[in-house]
Amino acid sequence: MNNLKDNDAVFKETSPWLVFQTFKNKKWLSNAIRLALTFLPKCILPAGLGLIAMSVWLMAFFILMSRLSQINEMTEVLVTLISTMAALLIAGVTYLWSIALWLSRLTAVSRAVLSLPENSWDDVIDSNILVAHMKDALVQVKQRKAFMAKYYLLITLYMLAPLVCLSICSAVVVAPTFVRIPGLVLPPWFEIMAMIGFVASGTFIFVLSMISLVVSSSCKPEIQKSVYKTIGLSVSCFLPCLVLSLISLIFLTITTEPLTPFLMTQPAVLNTQTAIILICNFLWQGVVSVFIFPFMVIPFSELLRGRFE
Q: Which pTM does this prediction carry?
């Protein structure tokens, strides 16, 4: 098996756009699907933790909104608030655990892709070879967890501004669906600007996140240089990564948001019916993510193959 070492990456001069021709290859697509399925059992735990976290958060918020309108005594109010905060804390910790595991699994997917010779995708790869590369990639990523923790922390700091923009815009776009504030009517232009900011910042974060996954999977364990290389790639390969990101986001939306049209028809309040639909939506997302997430990493790994030292 051709194990990828930390210093094996060689800078590639060819155009990143050429990789889109590879994606048309049926054998490449077959191998990509089979590699994603190979990682599927390893993705069940992070997907399950994410499902639990989102469901707990939703139910805590739903109970809080329902109870506050029915109780009159201060003691009951305090008990409800404390219970809700405890549930939200548990949900937050569980969600962060899910994210950490997802980063580990998806980084391993990228490392497994890059450990395969570039020309090996022209033929159907034996299942035993895929399993061997998966196991080796998981071991290698586990050995790099200290580097990855520092690397992702620094990358997150660089993404702080778009993350804040995304949070504010998402609050403006999504919040009216669940919470109605009497007398508050946002002007149409404000909602349009918030939607544009939501899409722009979200797309930028997605592009940089996918590049970060690939770079962190096999770059030299030098944090500052690795971060600079990631930012450099986000500039030099931004357009092909943007196109691939838009395709991926459309594919992700279609496969993970089947109940969104039903949610859009619900009243702007978090009632029982809306909560049930949301939990079903979370459940569906958890089920399909165990294949969709690993599969989406593979094209980005091919696009960035050999473009960082």
A: 0.82
